[in-house]
Amino acid sequence: MKDIGFVSSGDGAQLQCYRDFSEYLDEEIYLRTIDRVDLGAFKAIVLPDFSNQGLLRIHARQFNDYLANGGFLIVFEPNRMDEWLDVVTVQWFSRETEDWKWWMKPGGRMEAYQPEPRHAMAQAIPLADMCWHFFGAFRLPDTATPILNLDNDEGCLMYDQQVGGGGRLIASTIDPHTHHGRRFMPATTRFLEGFYPWLKAEVQQRG
Which domain of life is it from (predicted)? Predict the structure, then answer.
């Protein structure tokens, strides 16, 4: 079994990310022809931000079955997973970053924090590397561990290890791949530099 599959819609930023982090990724999977791929052959599947929405809905059953059968699905926003993922209910809310240019101001801060700073993912990715902006927020399922929350305690990044059927889900409302792939917003590069080594280790440790 392979460790991590990376789903690409063919977007240039996604392709760049796959090249940049290929040492942690086992295979690039083209979303348009994903019905020819056995997702069960991968311990984890990454859906990067700004994937093709129409194709996600067309192939929704394949992702749902993968998660329901014990797969480890990682979904970055804005992919509106609440519209096509039905194995687990993750309520999404429309939220706007209060100040999109906060990072350009001395002492600026995005309205988010790490509620579990000792979690291994938070240890691998400091708060400063999780903050640029966000696309909405989640209401956290009872089984989920919050990794990045808005100040009002709605979720930006969560890890649910108790999805029915033994599956695991990481869901986020942030978009690191788009920015890193287009070489804009250094925090997103630092995020991925922390995330993919952590994910690889998590997959190999947990199986």
Answer: Bacteria
